[in-house]
Every structure is written in structure tokens, then in C-alpha cells.
Write a structure and sequence with these properties.
It is a single chain. The chain has 11 helices and no strands. The protein has helices spanning 19-40, 57-62, 66-78, 90-96, 102-114, 120-127, 133-139, 152-159, 167-184, 189-192, 199-210. The chain is elongated, with a radius of gyration of 18 Å.
Length: 220
């Protein structure tokens, strides 16, 4: 598990669709390219004067072993975004992740969610704008660790946001947040929070909480 820590962004929502805002994802990806080019460095056995390394995050993350794909996208977005930039809609995340598929898109959407609203409840509102697998990928970026100093009732309120989804996505949401909230509460949420949910949600929450010692393979 790689904890991102609280994402410190300006609280003001991006409301208008100005030219500058439309260009923000392009500037983000450009900055990502520069950072990842530096991180990549010369390949083993190559001299420092070898051709310029890959700077496109899509190409660089695609070249990573599956275990490191999420970490690649995480570093790309979290460490290279313009000051104050945050995703605030499914559309803004989709623009950042245009052209990627499968595991790469899963990781990209999760990373894009991590640089979204700092409140996990607000993140779920944004994630509910997605349909299909992207919705759960977005949920995987929910920053429940930002609520560490809040009372247990707040966690229950957050996880109930999973009711915004339907079918397998709703179940997956309850399982994921049951797991991650249990991690940040040292297992207490399984007994103090999950039982307060409706039967189906409770079962999914407990299932997730019971798996809290397994790998999260994400960064939130």
C-alpha cells in the first residue's frame, strides 16, 4: 500500500470552462513527461549521452511491469500537476486518460481521482458520474486517510456514498471502502462501522474489512 497523504489543494472548485482550464490537462501531461523522463534516466548499459528517454507517461507506464503501473501513474499525476490543479468531474479525468485501455486506464483513472477533491465523500460524487469499470477505478482513489482525525460516524457517512452506484460497482465500492477504512482505523471499522449499514452493504463492508491485511495495490 502506498499512502499518498492528504492532497493539499486550494478548496475553490474549478467552475468555468475557460481556455486556461481546457489547457490544464495538456500542461499536466507535459509536466508529467518531463518528470518521468528524469525518473527514467538512461537504461542499464546505456551511456548518459544516449537518445532522450521516453517522456510520454502513456508510453512509459505501459512499459512497466503490471505491479508498478499504478505507481507510475500516481507519481505522474501527483508530483507533476500545475499548482492548484485538481480533477473535478468524470470528464476531466477522462481527458487525462484518453487513449489508454485495460490496466493502464484503470491506473490512470485511479491516479486522476487521487488529485481530485480532498474530501472522499466529494470524490464519490464525482466517481458516480462514471459508468462501468471506470467508476470503481475512481473509487479506488478515494482518500479516506484524510479523515483520520474524524469520529467514526463520518466514516459511516462516507461509505454510505456507495449507494450512488448500482450492481457490482456498489458492492465493489462497499468492499473497497470497508477495506481501506479498516486499514486507517486499525481494524476497528469492521465492528464499529460495517454493522450500521444495510444488510447487503454490511456484508460487502465486512468482506472488505476482513481482507484489510491483504495488498491494496494502490496509493490511497
Amino acid at each position: 500500500m502506498m499512502m499518498s497523504g492528504a492532497v493539499r489543494v486550494k478548496s475553490a472548485r474549478v467552475a468555468s470552462k475557460s481556455t486556461a482550464q481546457q489547457a490544464a490537462p495538456r500542461r499536466l501531461l507535459a509536466g508529467v513527461g518531463v518528470l518521468l523522463a528524469c525518473l527514467a534516466g538512461p537504461a542499464r548499459g546505456q551511456a548518459a549521452e544516449s537518445p532522450a528517454p521516453v517522456s510520454d507517461p502513456r508510453k512509459l507506464c505501459e512499459a512497466q511491469a503490471p505491479l508498478f503501473v499504478k505507481a507510475c501513474w500516481y507519481r505522474a499525476f501527483l508530483e507533476s500537476r500545475p499548482a492548484g490543479f485538481q480533477t473535478n468531474s468524470a470528464a476531466s479525468m477522462s481527458r487525462l486518460c484518453a487513449g489508454v485501455r485495460g490496466l493502464q486506464r484503470d491506473a490512470c483513472i485511479t491516479a486522476a481521482s487521487v488529485i481530485g477533491p480532498p474530501d472522499p465523500a466529494d470524490q464519490l460524487v464525482v466517481c458516480a458520474q462514471f459508468h462501468g469499470p471506470d467508476a470503481l477505478s475512481c473509487v479506488h482513489g478515494a482518500k479516506v486517510q484524510n479523515l483520520l482525525r474524524y469520529p467514526p460516524s463520518v466514516y459511516v457517512g462516507v461509505i454510505r456514498g456507495c449507494d450512488r452506484f448500482v450492481g457490482a460497482t456498489r458492492t465493489g465500492c462497499y468492499e473497497w471502502l470497508g477495506k481501506t477504512i479498516s486499514v486507517v482505523t486499525n481494524g476497528r471499522f469492521r465492528d464499529s462501522g460495517c454493522p450500521k449499514l444495510a444488510p447487503a452493504a454490511r456484508s460487502a463492508c465486512i468482506a472488505g474489512a476482513s481482507a484489510m491485511n491483504g495488498p491494496l495495490v494502490t496509493f490511497s
